[in-house]
Write a structure and sequence with these properties.
mainly alpha, 2 strands, globular
Length: 110
């Protein structure tokens, strides 16, 4: 997990320098994960992002009915190289920091 965190930190530093120095490569992409200054729940906040910046890459939202469905989705995501999901409580507004309204779901260590 430590090496993975280091890669993430290095990636953010590299992206920040690329933007600062005007060296953004065409293969790079920015993904908008939330819009804290917007009102409403996560779906409303991300809809505002799509409306304002039509080209912004915004994560897909979906609902999960059961834990077996969620585990199946996680296995499918892992098979494609993904790491996990962020689970949002429906209807919850934005709250900074750790909150029970927003949970990471990664499954067992791989």
């Amino acid at each position: 997990a430590g090496a993975r965190a280091d890669r993430g930190r290095a990636g953010r530093l590299h992206a920040g320098r690329a933007v600062q120095w005007g060296r953004w490569h065409e293969s790079a992409r920015l993904i908008v994960l939330d819009a804290p200054t917007q009102t409403g729940d996560i779906a409303q906040r991300l809809a505002a992002v799509r409306e304002r910046w039509g080209l912004a890459t915004v994560p897909e939202l979906g609902r999960v009915g059961t834990m077996p469905e969620l585990w199946a989705m996680l296995r499918a995501l892992h098979s494609k190289g993904g790491e996990g999901f962020m689970l949002h409580r429906p209807g919850a507004g934005y709250t900074p920091g750790r909150t029970p309204d927003l949970l990471k779901f990664k499954g067992p260590a791989m």
